[in-house]
Inverse folding.
């Protein structure tokens, strides 16, 4: 299966003029989650030899930028640079490209040089993922999209949760074009949040108005929060349940007599999400086809 799969996408890439079989992973991600729209500005981190850049350019027709440790051969109307995404000097160049307008989509298919040592490869992969995540947070437009390849392992869930707290919709997805022996999975995060509020936080607030559905409305730094079962004038301790780009939902923890001086309560333990992994994967429409674990892990071939 793995060999056929490799040959199939490798041959297809040759036939259709793509620089890597990885192009089909991006096409499948696009088909699954519609991440790129016409006119989008796209930044691709870890982009060599350029298969994703080709697909990104075709899909968006807008400004596309790629960076890699390796030189990327020229692609018409795509800007590329050589650089390390963990280096500040590279991030500065990316910021320069994104400019004030920012990017609609940040992609990261970067992979460290794999050694075959599961723990080491996973840790080095997560380091790249976090560099990409930090870059995405600096350049994404509000409601922007971030797609990042992660090698599964112990640190996956923490990383997934951190991404989840910055976007409205986040899911893990393995495209068919990924090799069945690969531990890779893609995190697809949509609707970058720029609001000051995050799920799980606790605030004190006064209910100022009632919404059309009868829920109370409170404001935190001008951000609108709908709070069920409250009346105008109620002073309540609330827990943020869900955050959308322009408003959020909260539930009452307790009623208060007066607003405290600092309305934000320390709440280091944010609400953690359930992610579909291993056994839970049956629920996904595209489950990973191999049972990749520490014991049978082999580094994938170069794409
Ligand atoms: C799987 S390839 C990307 C394939 C690409 N998506 C395509 O379709 O052609 C992974 C790339 O990540 C790059 N990479 C690894 N570490 C990097 C880093 N620190 N900074 C920039 N690129 C990096 C590697 O040089 C490699 O070209």
């Amino acid at each position: 299966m793995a060999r056929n799969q490799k040959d199939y996408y490798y041959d297809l890439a040759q036939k259709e003029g793509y620089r890597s079989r990885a192009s089909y992973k991006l096409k499948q991600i696009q088909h699954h989650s519609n991440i790129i729209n016409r006119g989008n500005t796209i930044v691709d981190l870890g982009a060599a030899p350029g298969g994703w850049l080709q697909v990104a350019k075709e899909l968006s027709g807008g400004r596309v930028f790629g960076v890699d440790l390796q030189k990327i051969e020229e692609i018409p109307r795509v800007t590329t640079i050589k650089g390390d995404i963990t280096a500040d000097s590279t991030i500065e160049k990316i910021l320069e490209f994104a400019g004030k307008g920012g990017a609609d989509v940040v992609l990261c298919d970067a992979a460290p040089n794999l050694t075959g040592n599961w723990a080491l490869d996973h840790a080095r992969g997560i380091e790249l993922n976090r560099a990409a995540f930090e870059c995405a947070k600096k350049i994404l437009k509000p409601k922007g999209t971030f797609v990042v390849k992660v090698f599964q392992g112990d640190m996956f869930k923490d990383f997934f949760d951190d991404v989840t707290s910055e976007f409205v919709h986040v899911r893990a997805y393995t495209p068919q074009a990924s090799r069945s022996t690969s531990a890779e999975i893609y995190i697809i995060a949509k609707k970058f949040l720029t609001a000051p509020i995050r799920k799980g936080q606790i605030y004190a607030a006064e209910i100022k108005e009632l919404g059309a559905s009868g829920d109370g409305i409170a404001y935190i730094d001008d951000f609108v929060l709908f709070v069920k079962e409250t009346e105008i004038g109620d002073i309540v301790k609330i827990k943020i349940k869900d955050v959308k780009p322009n408003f959020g939902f909260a539930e009452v923890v307790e009623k208060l007599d007066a607003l405290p001086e600092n309305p934000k309560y320390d709440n280091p333990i944010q609400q953690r999400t359930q992610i579909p992994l291993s056994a839970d994967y049956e629920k996904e429409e595209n489950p990973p086809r191999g049972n990749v674990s520490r014991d049978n892990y082999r580094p994938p071939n170069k794409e």
Remarks:
- Residues 202-261 form a domain with the OB fold (Dihydrolipoamide Acetyltransferase, E2P) fold (CATH 2.40.50.140).
- The CA atoms of residues 278 and 291 lie 8 Å apart.
- DSSP finds six helices and 14 strands in the chain.
- The mean pLDDT is 87.
